[in-house]
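example protein:
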Amino acid sequence: MERVGESSGGSSGHHGRGTNTAPYDRLATVFSSEGRLYQVEYAGNAVRRAGVTSIGVRGADSVCVVCQRSGTAAKDKLLDTTSASCLFTITERLGLLATGIAGDGRALAHEARNQAAEFRFKWGYEMPPNVLAQWIADRAQILTQHAFKRTSGVVAMIMGIDDEKKTPQLFMCDPAGYFFGYKAAGAGHRDREAVDFLEEKMKNNPSLSFRETIEMAVSALQFALKDEDLKATEIEVGVITKDNPTFTTHRVELMST
């Protein structure tokens, strides 16, 4: 998956060519002379600047996502961490992990729940994970087509069990509006470190059990944030399995019992 630029501004590094990037980085609908959409890249930077790291791992019979509850949880001593979450239950069988701007994530989850309810009402069965991922990708892409709308600063991970194939599924969609299925994925703050760790551990395509899936996700988060004072109370885990296809969330310390 191609990743957006790391810089916080779109015009640095282009002045040397004598180009004026001001008209390009103010509208999401205008390509630069190099074919870039700066506003979409800024949205990717906003996801990282939110200060939250998220990990998703797909095992043989389960999917696990791990995330920090809030980027400000460690700084705000008065914050009730149980009220700060990036994990959302869309249906009993679908979970969403929204990494980035908290308000954008809550708005996305609210609209996704409405879409899942409409799908159930129209077709008579639960929305599959790939259909929800497609809808989220379409929603994100449409936001890049209108100058009067802001690109959503959220990377979404969708997890669920495919009822037809009876297999766990993990999808990730970025602010540009495209999505892929993943064996493992990382998003947000220090996502590159997390992805490097997961690529090394998953290169032999291991068949992970339920417990190994959780341990892999937690280990990747710990590796990415090894330089930070990470507390167990600041980590949240979401899991779904073939035997129990109901999306559930836990505190990380519960997973060690």
In short: Confidence is low (pLDDT under 50) at residues 1-18. The helical segments are 38-49, 102-123, 129-142, 191-202, 210-224. The longest helix spans residues 102-123.
